[in-house]
Write the structure tokens for this entry.
Amino acid sequence: MKPTILYFLLLWPLLLLTKSYGQSPQTAVLQNIEEALVDLGLKNIGLSTNQKQLVLTYENTRYRFEAQALSDLLDKVGPAACTHFEELVLIGQKQGIEVFHLVIELEDCQAFSGQEGAKKAWIGGAEISYRERPKATTKPKALKEKGFFRAELVLEPQLRLAFGGEPEIVAHQLNLLPRLDVHLWKGALFQLQYILPLSNELQIPEETFVRPGRISFHQVAKLPGQVYSRLSLGYFSQYRYGGELELGRFFFNGQLFIHASIARTGYAAYPIRLKVEEPKAGWEFSDISSWQYRLGVAYWLNAWDLSIRLEHNRVPLGLSRNQIIVERYFNETKIGFFAYRADNRENYGVTLSIPIPPTKYFKHKRLQLRPSRTIEYRYHATQFFATDFDTGHDLERFFDKLNPEFMRRQLSRLTN
């Protein structure tokens, strides 16, 4: 018995050493790459390989800007991947849904040699697409760091200005909009928003109340043929509650987007403001009996990072509105112009979207506290407001700053 135990004790270190040396170099590289993705704070991580091709899937929940997440990912993965694989496929997700893929050749490691311009040229040869995953691509296996059943507490500032009034030439309203985003399952999002007034010179009595903002549930789904759908249910902006269904499809790799939506809503408000002298705490409702719809087309001009959108819709006031929106992207900043006509009356103005620091948020497992990615401002030139309600989530917002050509240019800009 004793010789057997002694034999085993002598053999055990040798077995461990054999196991360590028996691990293939490619397996070790895959483990290092997986650890690098986890270290970046990415979610829904998966990987697979078919000897010559490495396929990685991930979801960015840590970086403010998707192109920055992609750039840092390539810096982490590229040097190791180029020594063992010929092609790298990155599949980007949003809410667990595959939305774009990047395919890049790994012929050699010259891109990481430090030679000036080598890495930028390597990035320039990448294919970024909204289209379906290439047929030759193997499906990534088991996901790690799953991004479902987690929550984000988002702090969003809101600024409104009114010009030309008395006694103040410029009157302002400043609110803080804390919002809880709960990511439930693939494509599912629940949002609970509150409006906290900080400073109000606009003298709108009901807007001095601490009150609910949007309370809504959204389900986004990817259908065959680059078609996406969205269903929203809940309490929206502009005192509306009910449901909305949207369908949209991309053409020409994201250059053209056509979408349509239909909604059935009713009136709802907090505080009570109708048939009372002064607003008072409480809810008031009407039946869900009003139909709204929206038809839209958006075209992306690659050379200028410019989006042109045309919309025709029926807004809650019962008016049919025609609108044009032109938006120009300057990296993460967006400046736009809009004009609409309804009931033989017009309005026009400008929009501004500015990124809010930091560029990278803290790592998190189940709960993340962060500011909103941007602060938005919208100026109307006249007092005629034919404004549509906002569910808090739509397909254009879902794909914002994810246009393939825009991401390629931003990736090149961020590459050292």
